[in-house]
Amino acid sequence: MNTDTLEKMSAASLVTQAAAGALIAAVQTAAARIGFATAVAVTDPGGHLKAFDRADGVPFPAAEVAVDKAWIAASFHIPTHVWNDYLADPRVAPLTGHPRLMAVGGGYPIIDSGRCVGGLGISGGGGGYEQDQQAPVEALAALGFELPAR
Hints:
Structural class: alpha+beta
Order of helices and strands: HHEEHHEEH
Shape: globular
Strand order of the largest sheet: 2-1-4-3
Number of helices: 5
Distance between the termini: 40 Å
Radius of gyration: 16 Å
């Protein structure tokens, strides 16, 4: 390895365990205020699970959906609801067969200083996708993370 290569390398930015726990608590607080219970997943930027919580009474499939929403958001650095528009394009539509693709609201990239440091996914809002979008936005904003433009 030459020194030019060493200068171009940097440590990966990852959401910390403390921030992941704080995000889960903030989502659960927002969800309770809105009036629903939820499953919450936080991943690192590679989509690997960092932290998770499922409130009492939330159906078990919501756990997998929350993890997949966080995975998609971290993988593509965009909120999951944006995929609805993308999948309307026949050139992208074949991706609907991907087992982890969640094209519904509730997944957001966790952005700090312009870099995606993880993904946040929630599922369980019995009142519709709006609740699954509102709670994570409130949590991200409350903790000072940047919100995606879309």
